[in-house]
């Protein structure tokens, strides 16, 4: 099983939109997929109609509940879900009690390799202990970057953190998200990408109301957009790059 994390230090950059659409596209391409929502806000869980399961997370760490019990169905074939709830705000503390502390999440994911070929982690925006666990567990960390200087700075901060902590920088794969080519700065940064984007995935997710409407439809846009929709084509391209890099 391969593990793909959607992470960024910043919120509101399209992590959840990408996690939900990539998980959907993986499943639609016959890859048995588990989406684990690690963000206490539970947005990915909400899109996939996953009921929150208060208390269960703690009992997994206490050893009284097998981690597999956290899994619930999604409305889609080949796609299952571990929903988040507000108790996920304690995940940082729970993970710290496990030895070695950075490998707790990786170990929790291990049993899933029998049933799934891909785990997609939708991450909260932080550089916390949970993030350390995510960086350790993930084979690829896809980082949505809005083509603005502040968003690029957040990427550079994560890249610097990786170097400082001796983490594998090659795992970090940024991509442009919420890109609006009508804006001069967006266009410039896409056409002449700065150094931080050197190992970027090529797909550029456009700013599109079809993506925003996911909230109204409560579904990944890949499930309802017409096949020629530009945002859908961009997510499909992103999926092709990710699946090729992960050899799925
Ligand atoms: N490509 C896009 N175009 C337009 N709106 C988007 C796009 N991606 C995300 N959004 C919207 O922006 C908001 C934040 O997106 P989300 O994926 O939840 O970000 P994050 O998980 O990084 O916080 C949501 O309301 C979402 O619908
Ligand atoms: Mg999110």
UniProtKB/TrEMBL annotation:
Q: Where is the AAA domain?
A: 1-163
- The source's superkingdom equals Bacteria
Question: What name does this protein carry?
Answer: Cellulose biosynthesis protein BcsQ
Organism, scientific name: Sinimarinibacterium flocculans
């Amino acid at each position: 099983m391969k593990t793909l994390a959607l992470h960024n230090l910043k919120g509101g950059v399209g992590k959840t939109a990408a996690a939900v659409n990539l998980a959907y596209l993986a499943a639609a391409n016959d890859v048995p997929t588990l989406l684990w929502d690690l963000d206490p806000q539970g947005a990915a869980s909400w899109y996939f109609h996953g009921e929150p399961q208060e208390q269960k997370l703690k009992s997994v760490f206490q050893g009284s509940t097998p981690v597999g019990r956290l899994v619930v169905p999604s409305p889609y074939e080949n796609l299952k879900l571990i929903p988040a709830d507000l108790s996920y705000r304690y995940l940082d503390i729970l993970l710290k009690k496990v030895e070695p502390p950075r490998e707790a999440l990786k170990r929790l994911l291990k049993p899933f390799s029998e049933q799934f070929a891909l785990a997609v982690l939708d991450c909260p925006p932080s550089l916390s202990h949970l993030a350390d666990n995510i960086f350790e567990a993930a084979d690829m960390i896809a980082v949505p970057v809005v083509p603005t200087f502040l968003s690029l700075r957040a990427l550079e901060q994560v890249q610097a953190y990786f170097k400082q902590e001796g983490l594998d920088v090659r795992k970090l794969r940024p991509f442009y998200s919420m890109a609006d080519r009508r804006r001069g700065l967006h266009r410039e940064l896409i056409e002449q990408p700065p150094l931080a984007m050197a190992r970027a995935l090529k797909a550029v997710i456009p700013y599109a109301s079809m993506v925003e409407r996911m909230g109204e439809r409560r579904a990944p846009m890949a499930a309802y957009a017409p096949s020629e929709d530009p945002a859908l084509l961009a997510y499909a391209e992103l999926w092709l790059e990710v699946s090729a890099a992960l050899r799925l």
